[in-house]
Amino acid sequence: MITVTDTGTYLYAVTRDTPPPCPEGLLGVAGTRVRTIANAGLLAYVSTVPLEQFGAEPLRKSMEDLDWLGETAGAHHHVVEVVAEHLPTAPVRLVTVYSGDEQIRDLLSRRHDDFMEVLTRIADREEWGVKAYVDLTAPSPATAPGPPGSGGPGTAYLRRRQTSLRGREEAWRQAAARAEQIHDTLSSFAVASRRHRAQDPQLSGRKELMILNGAYLVERDRREEFARVVEELRGQGVDVELTGPWAPYSFTDLADSRPEVLGDA
Amino acid sequence: MTESGQPARTTRLRLQTDSEAMERDLSRLVLTLVELVRQLVERQCVRRMEQQDLSDEQIEVLGLTLMRLEEAMTEVCDRFGLSPSDLNLDLGPLGTLLPED
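ok -> structure tokens follow
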């Protein structure tokens, strides 16, 4: 039987069901009150949201509204941060909406083992983001201009073009190799690592080329060491940017944590 | 059609219908295509030169031609008040039409 409801249950994060309970007066997306649902030794942080905003159809439109998206992401992230202060927390992706509490309970029991595994993996660990940039417009160390030798101005012109084309290709190759090396070094310090897609300059707000957009799960008591390693990787034309600590968004993906029901299907 | 004194800087969504802007945009598009072809030919020449597919004379002639073409492009761009980066199209997920340097 399908009951028609006009609210859904928005899921923020999952933790083990241990005290302290939900922080009081915590507000989530669209100003809704955050509450918890307990089942199978797990605790889900949720709030009730109107489907006229969070149903499948309206979401398609809302997601294109950058103001709305910014506000929602901010609220979502705030809830995750607050919860993560006290407990190892598995954050859930932005706008994960279930049709009701019953489904969250079902999720907690059905995916119990997966959640437990994730929570064990992230306990006492933090996610750090590392972005590496390289300025490919910087003049590369001059390649030997080749023998001036034979030929007139036309030949010289083509040789110049050759040098500059090959120079650029070489610069790309070096940048890629450098990204690989940075990632390997950081990965060896991290418990787990993931490479996200590099952002283009419009998104990153920097005009240099992003060659690495990595996420690293690091033991909390090794954070200074990790920061030092990042510091040492800087240089030789590569700028490295460290951000965090973040709630471990990149390391809590369950194979299919996609909401099964969105809105009024 | 109204004839306002200064060319008003309209929002991007509005279609520019005054003839001056249209001429400029059209020449920009044409020049972009010419520049694309020029760069492709240039790369092809470099490749064939590396494969030693061309005689010294051929290299010299091709080089001279491409060089003059580049000079001509610069000159025409100057006349229309365009810079090299104006001749690039943003193809969204595919990146830009011409390599950015």
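Chain B has two helices and no strands.
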